[in-house]
Amino acid sequence: MKLIDGNLETTNIEVENTINHIGKRVSLHGSIYKIRRMSGFAFVLLRTKREIIQCIYSEEFSNFNLETLKEESCIKLTADVIKEERSKLGWELRMVEIDILSEPLAESPIVINNKLVDTSLENLLDYRPITLRNEKERAIFRLQAGVCKGFRKFLSEQGFTEIHSPKIVSAGAEGGANIFHLNYFGKDAYLAQSPQFYKQMMVGVYERVYEIAPVFRAEQHDTSRHLNEYISVDFEMGYIESFEDIMNMEVGMLSYALEELKENYVHELELLKVALPNVSTIPSIKFMVAKELISKKYNRAIKDFEDFEPEEEKLLSEAIKKETGSEFVFVTHYPTAKRPFYAMEDPSNPTETLSFDLLFRGLEITTGGQRIHNYKEQISKMKSLNMKVELFESYLMMHKYGMPPHGGLGLGLERFTSKLLNQDNVRLSTLFPRDINRVTP
Ligand code: AMO
Predict the structure, then answer these.
(1) Domain-embedded: residue 8
(2) What's the rounded Cα separation, in Å, for the pair 378 and 374?
(3) Are residues 74 and 151 in the same domain?
(4) Do 173 and 56 share a structural domain?
(5) 415 CA distance to ligand 1 centroid (A)?
(6) Whole-model pTM?
(7) Number of independent structural domains in the chain
(8) Which residues pair with 304 in a beta bridge?
(9) Which of 53, 211, 216, 361 is the most buried (most CB within 10 A)?
(10) CATH of the domain at 34
(11) Residue ranges of the chain with pLDDT lower than 50?
């Protein structure tokens, strides 16, 4: 019998502390990313967990034949670490011995080892398992992981408990037709459009909760900003005094995440040439004031008094940036008619809600606000909307048995990442996108 003790011996050198390895013989593993043959020697680029490491092959010191190496072969390598100012890392590896662990059956149908994967969006996504191996492609999702790490660290420090709510649910939380229906053993069920009901219920338990998880929207249209499955970053907090408490928490969360990137993701930021935005303060404007501002400034008639057209979001961001320098803007007091049944109305003007959206570089990335916590108020709101109250019995339990004033928000992770990287399509920041035409890979 063997006892597994949880101790993992790592053989791969970590790039951060390789300076300690200069002059030493090391053992590491990785995939052959690229072979550049020169006269008498070759540059072999090794793709490791995070870095592409330059290795030198030469008959002088390599005890194997270069012809045995193929791109995308997985190898174990013994090498000498040599100081080399011309290399990006300040050092390179002289290949001594290799052990080939596996070889590809075929050559990649798409060139993945150039600076960019030079192909259509369609191909980039069709061949995702391999195109993601490209240095820049994979850096996108490491940055995204860094953003989530920052969010988690911040929220945890602020006393939020991480939760995992069900994704198969009995009723839609967000209204509208964009809900996936399931035949659940002969009963009606749905894929969760958001964790809205559950995060609110959990405020009654832990006061402050968050979740980072997939949600589902049956979007019928094919746009650059809609996915059918996306990662929603949600938090919900109790005992708030105003919905501005939530906006303040979001500013803190975003600043913290960007600091995390600055500190620990320099390699990816440089590779992708990311200019991080300033998020120390974010201007806030009321919905109707914003509508009028765009209408006047850009000489556009207001067609929709309840929501923004995508073009208006762009124009508003442009105007705010010119005026204040901020690439973010909060828009508050959305019309009650456009907000879900759980949104709290402004007592001084019930046609508006105590809610907000956050726009970043021309795109809505967050919706949030204060919720109705009073049972009678929630029931009468639902009745006024002709909702079947009995379908929401389990949701309303929390209101019935007591809830503090509370609110929260949902941020689309892919939308935030894609704007951070100045991409023009949210799919570019989605690992394996699900859209109206795509369920593979
Ligand atoms: P909402 O429906 O506005 O609010 O969604 C919140 C945020 O999620 C992102 N998002 C999407 N991203 C990609 N594809 C989509 N189809 C898509 N739909 C939405 C956006 C949006 O701002 N429960 C509320 C949040 C709350 O009040 O806590 C909700 O889900 O970035």
Answers:
(1) no
(2) 6
(3) no
(4) no
(5) 10
(6) 0.96
(7) 2
(8) none
(9) 53
(10) 2.40.50.140
(11) none
Q: By three-state DSSP, how is residue 213 classified?
A: strand
Q: Which residues pair with 28 in a beta bridge?
A: 77
Helices 375-384 & 393-400 angle (0-180, nearest 10) = 140
* pLDDT for position 87: 83
Q: CATH number, domain at 402?
A: 3.30.930.10
State how beta strands 181-184 and 168-169 pair: unpaired
Residue 129 resides in a domain: no
User: Residue 350 has what pLDDT?
Assistant: 97
φ, ψ dihedrals at 261, nearest 5° = -65, -45
What's the confidence (pLDDT) of residue 101? 98
317 Cα to the center of ligand 1, angstroms: 18
Task: Give me the pLDDT at residue 242, please.
Answer: 98
Ligand 1 site residues, Cβ closer than 6 angstroms: 174, 194, 196, 217, 219, 226-227, 230, 232, 234, 364-369, 408-412, 414-415, 426
Tokens 């600076």 sit on residue: 115
Note down the domain range covering 222.
135-429
Q: Residue 15: what pLDDT?
A: 62
pLDDT digits (tens, 9 = 90+) for 247-266: 999 999 999 999 999 999 99
Partners of residue 80 on adjacent β-strands: 25, 94
Same-domain pairing of 59 and 166: no
